[in-house]
Amino acid sequence: MPFKASFPERWRFQASVLAPVVFSLLVTAATVSTFLLWSTADLDDRTLRHEYELAEHILAEKLAALPHDQLSVANWDDAFEKTALQFDPDWVHKNIGRWMHAYFGHDRTFVLDEADQPIYAMNNGHRVDVVQYRADEATLRPLVLRLRTRLREGELVAYAGGAGNAFPNVTGITRLGGLPVIVSVSPLAGESGRLTRAHGEEFLLVSVNDLDAAFAKDLARDYLLEDASFSRLPSFSTHRAQYPILDMDGRIAGFLEWTPNRPGATMLTRTGLALAGGFVFSAILVFLLLYRLWRSSSALEQGRVEAQHQANHDILTGLANRARFDEMLGRAMIARRPPTEGIALLMLDLDRFKQVNDTLGHQSGDDLIRTVAQRLSNLTGTRDTLARLGGDEFGVIHHARRGLADHLRLAEKMIDAIGKPFEIMGSEVFVGVSIGVVVIGESDTDRRDIARKADIALYEAKSAGRNRAVVYEETMDELLQNRRAIEAELREALRRTDQLSVAFQPLFDLKTGRITGAEALVRWTNPQLGKVSPVQFVPVAEGTGLIEPLGEFVLRTACAMGARFPGMRIAVNISPVQLRNPRFAERLFDLLIETGMQPTDLEVEITEGILLDDEDVAAGSLRTFRGAGIRVALDDFGTGYSSLNYLKRYPVDCIKIDRSFVSQLDDTGSSIAIVQAMVTLAHALDIEVTAEGVETEQQRSVLTRLNCNTLQGYLLSPPMTQPEIESLFQRAYAPQPEPAPV
Ligand code: C2E
Ligand code: MG
Ligand code: MG
Question: Which end of the chain has fewer CB atoms at under 10 Å, N or C?
Answer without folding.
Answer: N
